[in-house]
Specification:
33% of the residues lie in helices and 23% in strands. The radius of gyration is 12 Å and the shape is globular. 15% of the residues are buried.
Length: 82
Amino acid sequence: MSQDLRTLPDESRISTSQVAALFGRSKASIFRWISIGVLPPTQCIPAGTRATHRLGDVRALLDSAGAKPTNNGNGRARTTIA
């Protein structure tokens, strides 16, 4: 997505790769979050290899009390979901 995510409306859809980049996590981590109900997908390919997410849901998760930015020791920021 070439447009800044901060300027997009909540109804916009973003990819799992974009969500992973926002949280400093791998796509596999985001798919685990989907499977345990932390982040609902708006669309998911049946094989479970691709999904899109409502930007408003991602923002809500980032803003939630359980989302805490951390540093994993290698200079990359990560967000821990409690």
